[in-house]
Amino acid sequence: MRDDITTQPIGRAIARLSAPIFASMVINSLWLSVDIYFLGRLTADYIAVATYLSPCLFVVYAVLEGFSIPLIVLIGRAVGTRDPQQLAEVRDTGWGLLVGVGLLVTVCGFALLPIAPRVFTMSPVVSKGFTLYALCFVASIVPWCVRAYQAALCGGTGHTSPSYVGSLTFIGTKVALQGALLWSGHLSISGIGLSTIVAMWISVVCTAVYMRCLAIRGRPARWMAVSQRWLRQFLLMAVPVMAGNLLGAIEAGMTVGFFSHYGTETLSALGLLERVRTMALFPAIAISVGISIFVSQHLGAGQIARAWHGVSATFRVIVLAYIGLVIICYCGIAPALSLLAPDATGAREFAVLVFQSEVVGFPFLALGFIGQGAFEGTGKTYPNLITLVIVVVFGRLLPYLIIVPVMGPMALRYILPWSHVLHAVEAIWFIRSYRRLMQSQRVGRPHVAVAQCAVQ
After folding, report:
1. What is the pTM of this model?
2. Confidence of residue 270 (pLDDT cuts 50, 70, 90)
3. Are the C-beta atoms of 116 and 129 separated by less than 8 Å?
4. d(CA 49, CA 456)
C-alpha cells in the first residue's frame, strides 16, 4: 500500500492524484465517441442511437459512482489512520456491494430494455439498432462494475495509474476490434456492441495484472462479504450520490424527450454536444476526484487545516484555468466536430452554435465539481443532491417548459449556460461550511466521528 499523501506538498499531491484520473477519463470518453464514429459509417441515423443510450449510461454511472465514491473515501480514511484491519473490511464490503449491485442492474436492464423504444419516438431503423446496441451494453455492466471496484480501491490508496491502464486497454481493444470489422467489410451495430463486452473484460484482466505488479491487493479476503460495521457508512454516502446521478439520468432523458420531436438531426446534435462537453469538463472532474481523496486522507489523519488549504488553492486555480479553456473551446469546437462527425453537417452546425454559448458557464460548473469532490471527501454527499435538484428544476425543467415552446431547439443556447451557473452553489456552500469547521476545529455530521477519532 502506498504511503499516504498527508506529508507531501499540496500541489504535487493533488496533481499526482488527478493526472492519471484525467487521462483515464479522456480515454473512457472515447467509448461513445468511437462508437459514434463507427455508427456514422453505417448510417447517419445511427448517431442518434448513442444519444438514446445516454440516459441508460447515466443510470449505470449513478450506481457505479454511488458505491465507488464511498469506497474511495473510506479507503482514504483507512490509509490516513493507518489501520490495516479497517482497510481490509472496507475493501471486502466495497467488492460485495459493487459486484452484487452490478448483477442486479444487469438483470433489471435486460428486463426493461424492450420498453425503451416505446418511451422515445424512434424510427424503425433506429429502434432496431438501439435494441442490438443496448443489449451488448447491458451485458458489459458486470465487468464495468469490477473495473469501478479496481479504480476506487487503487484511488483510495493513492494509486490512480491503474485506472489509466484499464481505460487505455479498454479503448485500445475497442478501436482495434471495430477498425478490423470496418477494414474487413463486416462492420455492423451488433459487432460494435460485442466489441464493448470483449474490450471490457480484457481491460479488467490487464488492470488486475498491473495491480499485482504494484503489490496492490485487489482480491477480497472473503468473496461477497459485506461488513455490518461499514455497510451503514457506505449507504449514508452512496444513497445521495446515486439519487443525484439518477436525477441526472432523469434530466438527460427529459432533454431527449423534449427535443425528440424536432427530428433525428437535433438528437444527433445533442449527442455531439454531450461528447465535447464531457471532454472539456474532464479536468475539473478529475481534480474533483483527486480533491476527494486528498480531503479524506487528511481528515483521517486529523489535518483539517491542511485539507482546507488544498481545496481553497484548487478553487483559485480552476477558475483561472477554465477562463482560458473557454477561449480555446470557443475557437476549437468547429474543427473538433468536423473530425468527430464529418458527414452530419446539419447536426454539426447546430451543435457548434449551442456549444459556443454554453461554454460561458463552464467556470461556474467547474467550481461546482470541486465543491462536490471536497464535500465527498468529508463524507457529505447530500449537498450535491440538493444542488442537482436546484439545477434540474430551475436550470432545466422550468426553462424547458417556458422557453423551448417559444424558441425551439435554439433555446439551448441560453438554458445550458444558466444551468451551469447554478452549479456554483455547491462551491459557495462548501466554503461557508468549511470555514465554520475551521473555526470550531471539529467536523459536523455525518463525518464527526471520524474527525474526533483522528484528533484523539
Report:
1. 0.71
2. confident
3. no
4. 55
Domain boundaries of the chain, sorted by first residue: 10-455
H helix intervals, 43-140: 47-81, 84-112, 116-119, 124-139
Phi then psi for 317, rounded to 5 degrees?
-65, -40
417: preceding bond cis by omega (within 30 degrees): no
Q: Which three cell numbers stand for residue 242?
A: 446515486
Among positive and negative, which fits the CA dihedral 185, 189, 194, 197?
positive
In this predicted structure, what is the pLDDT of residue 453?
35
Q: What is the pLDDT of residue 452?
A: 37
Other beta carbons within 10 Å of 232: 11
What is the mean pLDDT of the segment spanning 62-86? 77
Whether 379 contacts 447, CB under 8 Å: yes
Give me the sign of the Cα torsion angle 239, 242, 245, 251.
negative
Residue 330 corresponds to which amino acid?
Answer: Y
Annotate 379-408 with DSSP letters as a single string. Answer: T--HHHHHHHHHIIIIIIIHHHHHTHHHHG
Average pLDDT of 55-77?
76
Task: Compute the average pLDDT of residues 36-48.
Answer: 76
Query: How many residues does the structure list for the chain?
Result: 456
Higher pLDDT, 279 or 119: 279
Is 361's pLDDT higher than 80? yes
Determine the Cα–Cα distance for residues 194 and 265; give it in Å rounded to an integer: 26
Distance CA 19, CA 4 (A): 17
Determine contact, residues 449/299, Cβ cutoff 8 Å: no
